[in-house]
Amino acid sequence: MQNAEWNEASGSIDESWLTWHAVYRVIPDERPLIEDTLKQLCDDEGCCFVVTTGGTGPAPRDVTPEATEAVCERMMPGYGEQMRAISIKHVPTAVLSRQTAGLRGKSLILNLPGKPKAIRETIDEVFVSIPACIQLLEGPYIETNDSIVKAFRPAGLIRKSKPKS
């Protein structure tokens, strides 16, 4: 996703690299509201991939990981580990991050850091595995533009040919 742009003014990702519809919510750092919003996006909106930004530090108001864990059936700790490993190359305080990911039904929830620069650094690397994860959850087959991000899929998940429209 090398060319994806994070818009610092609006707090959103340039959708030109997406092949699906994006749904946005901007909410305060309040755990019950975060939990309700995550449930709504997964259960009511049917989002296969939910991304949060911010709220992953050690400050008392940083409760996004707790909200994510409360609504997920299973956690995906590898994403948090990878994001911290990426961030520690750029800033020593990355060890303070509590980024995580989890599964709710057929949805993957990913907690990204809050700073636009850190978001760009981490999403570029972790996104390569996300289409395979969503496919394993029986979600849609996500096509990617290889010049922007080349999704990694194990041999059993590679589509032999594109379906006819």
UniProtKB/TrEMBL annotation:
Q: Which InterPro entries match?
A: MoaB/Mog-like_dom_sf (IPR036425), MoaB/Mog_dom (IPR001453), MPT_Adenylyltrnsfr/MoaC-Rel (IPR051920)
Look up keyword Transport and say if it applies: no
Task: Tell me the ranges covered by the MoaB/Mog domain, including all copies.
Answer: 8-133
Q: What pathway is this protein said to act in by its record?
A: Cofactor biosynthesis; molybdopterin biosynthesis
The positions making up the signal sequence are none
Which UniProt key words apply to this protein?
Molybdenum cofactor biosynthesis
Q: What is this protein called?
A: MoaB/Mog domain-containing protein
- Organism of derivation: Coccomyxa subellipsoidea
Q: What is the lineage of its organism?
A: Eukaryota, Viridiplantae, Chlorophyta, core chlorophytes, Trebouxiophyceae
